[in-house]
Structures are given as structure tokens and as C-alpha cells.
Amino acid sequence: MNNDKPIIAVLAGLTLAATGSTALAAPTQIRVVWDHDPAHEAIVAFSEGSGGSPYLLWGDSTDENSWENTAYQKNYTFDGSLRSYFVRLTNLQPGSNYYFRACDSKGCGERFWFTTASDNAADLTFIAGGDSRSNPTARRQGNRLVSKVRPQFVLFGGDLTDDNRASEVDEWLDNWTETYSNDVIDGVDYKRVYPLVPTVGNHEDNDQTFICKVFGVDANKDGSCSLDDTYFAFTIGGGQARFYTLNTEFRNSGYEAEWREQMDWLKADLASDGSSVTWRMTQYHKPMFPRTTSKPSKYDKMYEWAQPFYAYKMNLSFESDSHLVKYTWPVVPDNDGYAQASAGTLYVGEGSWGAPTRSADRYANWIIDQDSFAQLKIVQFSGDEVLVRTARFSGEGDVTALSKAQRDADPLALPSGLNLWKPQSVGEIMTLTRSGDGLTQVKGGGDDPGPGDPGDGDSTTLAAMQDVTVGSNGFHNNGDEVYADGSDGGQELRALLSWDLSAIPADSSVDSVELALQVVNSSGGEYGVYAGSASWSENGADWNDASTGVKVGSVTPSSKGSVSIGLNEEGRRLVEGWINGQEANKGLIIASMGTSDGVDFVSREGGQAAKLIVAHQAGDDSSGRGAKSFSSDQDVSVGSQGRRRNSSRLEADGSDGGQELRVLMHWNLSDLPAQAKITSVKAEFSIVDPSSGSYSLYSAKGDWSESAAQWSDAETSGGKVATFTPSNNGSLSVNLGAAGIELVQSWLSGAPNNGLVLSSDGTSNGVDIESRESSRAPKLIVEYEL
Fold first, then answer.
1. Of 108, 308, 350, 684, which is the most buried if we count CB atoms within 10 A?
2. What are the Cα distances from residue 460, in Å, to 325, 445, 609, 736, 783?
């Protein structure tokens, strides 16, 4: 009997060693992965410990006596030496916490927990980024930000390491442990682990199946590890959003069949599962149009996705590879490129979670802003909106981590001390909404200004219409960059800039004005921003036009990238005067304040014109003046051979397939005061396919409707009110002049309001504009006096 006691004690000791506090030999490098149905499934992956027969103890409470014991279901050895084990947990409850320990014959590791996705739409926070390959210091800063933000999950866009070798991936997995958050739950230490969604990058091209060998991805659940596992999709929130992970490495020679299969799958899934969700988002490695000149200007295979993205309403794309920062406006595919639109697909990126940053030095007019620094994206679903922030890694040590209690109380809480990027036009928070047909819009920015904060009026962003450099010894340059310098080759250089402010109602009061530049050659010297003192044009400007008026701001452009200059009170009054006509709009001048350390910034010809960001309030009728903007309530294209189209685009053309096309547009002006005296009328169009030809607007002669309009309704004998050339994509404002004022006044006095006809003046170079069905309807902006 006495001999039994030591045996029992030994057995008890072995049990404690296996299930008690952390055993040094237990499995390590814990990661949780999502690939299929994150509300009901999750992959728990871990690296080999020193024992055999790995298994998982897990449950939906911290009561370990109730936990299940599940043996590993798969294991793979990556690059000959990194062995990982995988347990796919199934039949989980949505929006629930699960607790676990990875164990083997030598013992159990630390306690972890994670949360499944909800199956109902809910506010949440997630993180997106990529390219951590060669700078562990920056990589670990980003990882620690994950721990401090406490996201629901992390999208990672590829290029984890430089050479995709076992030793590098082993180090990466060690670094990833810094994403864990330390918690005490029911008096016991736990680490929260955040589900990861991995992507294949070009630095994983030597073995793309690392995605299943290291992370256990098996989205099609066929039990094998193959290239089929490198692209997949899943839905969260019961239809709130569907996330697509795509493989850009199929662009390479030898993967033609895989590329076709992925494309076929993508289109089919977008048409089926993707059509039933509110938001569609995707991550992949190579961008369509890299924003650095050290990369090709375009990846043609990636661009093959642009049309399906547009057709099936992909809302937001996370791109990587270039190691820089960018936001685009919503864009649509156009002539083998992008065209900015009020609603389309929005692209953000491009990596830099530890890889060496590259210069963001390739510009386009569809870019909101771009820069170069180590960063990740913090993205939030907030009600019907999506909020996008970019967090810099610099200053990570000053960020105060959220606690479990703070995250539990508020799914949108963010830690204090985040070093957030403030891009031009949108600021620290880019707010995305959806158009009526499900495409992405930027709230409060670009050529389609939305409301600002409650009570703060509107904010309108205007790109320079003219920009040129002139010198004191006759220098004149109208190229891709604009210069200013106190002394360059013996002469002073000054930059002249001007904007068309006609899109802002003339009775508006201006709250603030900001000038945004994209600097490509920085300076340690100070530069002033001044009111122009002479009328000028790009082609004819000279030094006499560069005399400076009142100073409205100053800046020391000490770094490349976006630079914002808040104009002073003189600047605010000046711009308000331009808008209401009390001041002649002679633009602004940037001039040295004594420095000979020159500054260069991108011009409109270079693709990223200087922007004027005007925060303004609309006037009110009590002032005796007013302005109202009306969106078309009917618009349709008709053709001379019977064509009628009522879609998201309106088409006008002198000859298209043998017939002429014209556009009919109508606005309901019943909100205009009956006693109003019309003082100005402008039409505003969103051009999505420009033309170098001439077009005119006419008064429509008779009554018509969208559903029944025909060629006879588009006669142009009703009187011409304006002529213009729609030569650029984006917003176009057309002043209807005296004829337009007379026409609208007659409508207000009781004459039939049959709207306007848009017709070619003979050109067969067609123009397309957005319709009311696209959510960027043609507008009529009417100013009046009472």
C-alpha cells in the first residue's frame, strides 16, 4: 500500500507537467488563420515542439475541464526544416471567444484566445498591410501596433520575407508573436491572437504553397496543398462584406492555366456570393499601376481585373509590393488606364510593413495622395460607412495599447498616440460610402463633395487649372514640375498657380482654405504664398506676372511627398472674394523668402496638380442672395436610328455605329423661390470619356420621359445656350451665360421646363458623362437674388 503513494505522486506530477504552466518544449509560434467561413471555422497553426503527437486543447470558456482534445489533422514541412501542425476548428459559434493551448507529448504551451467573426453586420476594426521582408525592426514595430490596436483580423498582402527560406520564415513567425495582446481572464494569463489572412507575394514565388505549408490554408477543403490554395474568399457579418485574396504571381510565364482558372473563379464568385454582400474588398500583391518609377508603370495582367472589379462592384483593393503609401480616388477602367469617377473602385497600398521604402514618384490625376514611409492600414466598418486610416510605424513606442475592456466596450476604439498620415483632400480619416448601385464613393472629397462634419458645410477640392514657372531672366517652363528658387543659375524662379472656383456657389462663405502640393525636390528654406497681382496664362506668363501681392501663407518644404499649407485670414478672404466676384482671381504665387535652396513640386501636366481645399458654407435666402444645386431627375441617351439608353453613362456623338447620339436632361427646379431673379446658371457634368470635339447645349423643345424618349425629342431647334469642349475626365462646369439665365428665368415664370439637349457640333469624337443612375447626376447650379 505504501508503495502506491510515490507512483500516484509521480503520475500526478506528469499530469501537471503536461497540462499545468507553460512547458518549454511545447509547440510554439501560434497563429490563427481565416480562409473559408470565419464565423464558424478557424485554423490554429503552430510550429513543432520537442515532443510528439501534437494536439489542441480548446473550448468556448476558460474552464479547461470542459475543453476538447483535438489531434492535429495536417502537418507540412516547409523548405526542408520548418515543420508546422494544423487543426481546423469547425462548427464554431459566430462572434464568440475561443480559448486554447497547443500541446504535445512533452507538455502544453501558453493559453491563447481569439474571436470568430459575427454573422450579423456590426461595427469592427481590421488591419491591412504587406511587405515585411527585410527590416525586422520596422516589421516588429508594425506587429506591436497590431497588438495595441486589437483588430478583429489582419490582411497581409505578401512578401513576408526576402527569400522565402525556412530560417527567414521562422524568424518572421517569432516576430509575429509580438502581435499578441496580454490579457488576464478569470484570473489566468491569456494571449489574444488575431486571425491572419495571408497572401502570396513575388518573394514567395519559389514556393507559393508556403501559404498552406506555413499557415494551413485549404479554402476549398480538398485536403491537399496546391496552387489552388493561393486564392480564396470569405464573407463576414452575414453579408456585410466579402474579402477576396488573389494571387498575382500567376502573371508569370508558365502559369497561364492557373491565371485563367483564378479569373474564371473570381468572376463566378463575384457574380454569385459577391453579389449578395454590401461591401466587396480584395487583397493581392502586385499593384495594377505602381506609384514608383523603380517599378513598371503598369502590370498588364493585374489590370485584367479592373473591368471585373468595376462590373461586379469591387469596393476597395489593398495592393502591396512597391513599399510606399497611396490612396486613389474611386476610379473606373478607361483606355487601358483609370479614369477618376464619383463612384468606382478605390485602391490603397502599397506595402511597406518593414521592406525598404521606395520613392512615391509616379503621379496621376486619379491619386488622392501618395508618400513613402513604413505603415499599415487601419480599416473600420462604422454603420453604413468604411473608415480608412494609415498608421505610421514611427512613434509606435508612444502609442498606448487598448485594453481588453476598452475593445470589448467599443469595437471602433483606437489607441491614443497613433501617428496617422494626413493625406491631401481627405485628412486622417478617409470615409467611404456606397453609391446607389453599390460602387465606392469618398465622402466629402474630390470633385463630388459630400457633407463635412455636422454644421461644418462642404469641403471642395479643386485641382489647379493652370501652373507655370517663370524666372527673373526670362525663364519659362510649363512641364511636369513647377519650381520656386531664390537663385537658380543667376535668376529667381517663381511658381504661378490658378484654379477655377465656379463649382462653388457664389454666395458661399469660406471657413478655411488649404493649399496642397506634392513635393519632389525638398528644401530647407522658407517659401511664401502670395496673392497674384496680374492676369496671366500658362503660355504667355512672364516675370511681370509674378509680382507678389498680399502674403497668405508660408511653408518650409523640408521633405518629399504631400505638403499642406493652411492659408491665413488674408488668404481666406481672398478666396472668398474670388468666389463671390469681389476679387479678381489672379491665382497664387509661391516665391522664395530669401532661400536659394530650391523646391520642385508636381504640376497638372505631371499628373498631380496643386490642390486648393476650400471649406465653405452655403449662403441663405435671408441675405437677399442664394444658390441651389439640382441633380437631374431624368436623363437618357437617344440615337438617330432608334437607340435609347438609360444606364449609368450618357453618350453624345456625331457618329457612333452610323447614328448620331444626343443626351436629354431634365431638372426639377420647384425648390427655387418663385420671386427669384436668376443671376447665374451653370451645368456640371462628370466626364468619364472625354472628347477633343465641340459640343453644345440646347433648350429641349417638347415634353419627354426617360422610358419613352426618342430622337424627335432631341431636336436642337429650341435655342443654343452654351458650347464647350469636354477634353478631360472629371468634373466639368459649363457656364450657360445670358441665354441660360433667360431660359431658367422663363421656366420659373411658367414656361414649360423641358430640360436641355446635349449635341455634337459635328465631331464624331464621342463624349460620355455619368447619369443619375451612376449617382453622379448632371447638375444645374442656379444663383439668384430676391
1. 350
2. 23, 7, 15, 22, 18
